[in-house]
Specification:
Layout (H helix, E strand, L loop, with lengths): L2 E5 L7 H15 L4 E4 L11 H7 L3 H12 L2 E5 L2 E2 L2 E2 L1 H13 L8 E7 L7 H13 L3 E2 L4 E3 L4 H5 L3 H9 L5
Parallel strand pairs: 1-2, 1-3, 3-6, 6-7, 6-8
Antiparallel strand pairs: 4-5
The chain binds flavin mononucleotide.
């Protein structure tokens, strides 16, 4: 079972990158095989049909599509911006769907979010569920959300909960 972790913020002190690292630590401790994809790898140009026609799909997005194909499940750790999805993640979903319209089909996707706000990015998670359902992915029911996020709130997230979160979809 290989889990691909993808972070949705390139900010140096990103809370979502920190949440991603916490999840990776838990995966390592519990013997869950995984791969990491740096958020920098999502830095493709905003999807534009003319650009695609002229230059094709950016190599980084082709590599992402391959990594998704090779993974048994994908964990998206996304910030929330104005009640919705990180543009980095949305753009990556769009480009990957251009590599292969079935790239997300039946893929197990787990959703996580951290925010300094009280809702912990849950509205971004909810929007991501809709988008991913429409490209055919299966999103797991539990999300790992950290409201009022900071280093200590992320470190204090219950380990047993995080293991259960990561194990979702194992029997699919
Ligand atoms: C344009 C913008 C809109 C934001 N909107 C929301 C929001 O709707 N909900 C929320 O919880 N946080 C919101 N935030 C705060 C982000 O959650 C916060 O900046 C967070 O640290 C970003 O993720 P990162 O730390 O992983 O980079 C917003 C931040 C920006 C810059």
């Amino acid at each position: 079972m290989t889990v691909l972790f993808i972070g949705g913020s390139r900010r140096k002190e990103s809370l979502n990158a920190k949440l991603k690292h916490r999840l990776v630590e838990v995966a390592e401790k519990h013997g869950i095989q995984h791969k990491l994809l740096d958020a920098d790898a999502l830095d493709a140009p905003i999807y534009h049909g003319d650009l695609e026609e002229a230059e094709g799909v950016p190599e980084s997005m082709q590599a992402l599509a391959k990594a998704i194909d090779a993974a048994d499940k994908v964990v998206l750790v996304s910030p929330e911006y104005n009640s919705s999805v990180s543009p980095l993640i949305k753009n990556a979903i769009d480009w990957v769907s251009r590599v292969d319209i079935g790239a997300w089909g039946n893929k197990t996707v787990l959703l996580a979010a951290a925010s300094p706000g009280g809702l912990g990015g849950l509205r971004a998670v909810s929007h991501l569920r809709d988008i991913l359902a429409n490209v055919g992915a299966w999103t797991a029911p539990m999300c790992a959300s950290c409201p009022k996020a900071n280093d200590s709130a992320i470190a204090s997230m219950d380990e047993e909960f995080l293991v259960n979160f990561l194990r979702q979809g194992d029997s699919r």
